[in-house]
Amino acid sequence: AQIKNRQGLAKKAGMPVIICGGITAKSKPVPGVNNYKAFMTKSVGEMFFTESASFSKAAKRYKRKLLHVHCEDHAIIEGDASRPPHAEVKAIFEALAIAKKHKLRMHICHLSTAEGAKLVAEAKRSGQQVSCEVTPHHLYFDTMNVSSFAQAPFIKMNPPLRSPSDRKALLHAFNIGLIDALGTDHAPHTAQEKKTSNPSGVPQLDTFGPFV
After folding, report:
1. Are residues 48 and 93 in contact, defined by beta-carbon separation less than 8 angstroms?
2. How far apart are CA 192 and CA 170, in angstroms?
3. HSE of 35, CA atoms in CB hemisphere, 13 A
């Protein structure tokens, strides 16, 4: 009921807003809801998978839906809190393999690495029904220029900012049409929250329209 109510509100927005149902190990599709979100590791909240086998089993139930996937490998992140680039690359590789196996429609959320973008492009060329997005902060901020932001500590999100070479590769891929959409961080937080525990996530709901 909450999802359908939010879908109604989304239709009144001035830009495309997609409301996704969450996927867990035991969840099933809901009539009338076509978009779902899965987390391949812990990001914000407790809804996530810890290994690809359980995700594959759950994803199979959503064959006729569009799966939006947060791709970071759980095992790698458990051992490295910096959430390194290869955690994303490995998770995208496994997610695309699952999509191919079950013939799923899949959307890779907030790409942050050049190698991840290459994997998505290769999957598209092979005929898979996959798409991807990138965020404004991953296109214009990186590990070297983040200090130019007025409140640098606020630029904390999952996946994190990457190297200048990753950023430039994503911007190039976006400009030539290899990336399908520009998206937000999907994780809004108030300024007060960011000043205290500083959870991962940046709002963008108020700046996304002007940015576009």
Report:
1. no
2. 31
3. 12
